[in-house]
Amino acid sequence: MFVTAIGMKGAAIFKFNRNSSGGFEESSLVSLISVFGNTNIISVSCDKKIVFVVARENGLNFVDISNMSNPKIIALIPSSGNEDVVVSKDCNYLYFAEGYRGLTILNITNPAKP
After folding, report:
1. Are 7 and 41 a contacting pair, CB within 8 Å?
2. C-alpha angle 29-32-36 in degrees, rounded to nearest 5
3. Other CB atoms closer than 10 Å to residue 21's CB: what's the count?
4. How far apart are CA 110 and CA 114, in angstroms?
5. pLDDT of 57-105, one tens digit each?
6. Which of 2, 10, 76, 97 is at a distance of 20 to 30 A from 64, taking alpha carbons?
7. CA–CA separation, 23 vs 101, rounded Å?
8. How do the domains of the chain map onto residue ranges?
9. Could you tell me the pTM of the whole model?
């Protein structure tokens, strides 16, 4: 699985297939994640079930991709001036750089209620 930001269209989830030598042979689009705003930063939870999508116009979107063909936004942290988002090594926290507001640290053990 590979998730990438695609600007005003949100984000895209791709599936990659390996060839017999272990390299990547082809990819296919699994689904699109639609969010309002210009999507430019993405991070993925350690269990690969939640994608954190930053859209400059509306904030940090928590997207459940446990069913990759039907992603669902489960939480939104409104913000503007979003700069970066990183999951902690222990997978319990999300570090969210919000430009002039500084750094916000969110507990993501329950992603539906950060």
Report:
1. no
2. 155
3. 6
4. 6
5. 788 999 999 998 899 999 998 887 777 889 999 999 999 988 778 888 9
6. 97
7. 42
8. 2-79
9. 0.82
Written as one letter, the residue type at 47 is D
Neighbours of 99 (CB within 10 A): 12
**Tokens, residue 69:** 């063909």
Place of tokens 């930001």: 5
Task: Report the distance separating Cα 64 and Cα 71, nearest Å.
Answer: 6
Average pLDDT, the chain: 85
Q: What Å distances lie between residue 49 and 88, 112, 113, CA to CA? A: 15, 12, 15
In whole angstroms, what is the distance from residue 22 CA to residue 29 CA?
A: 20
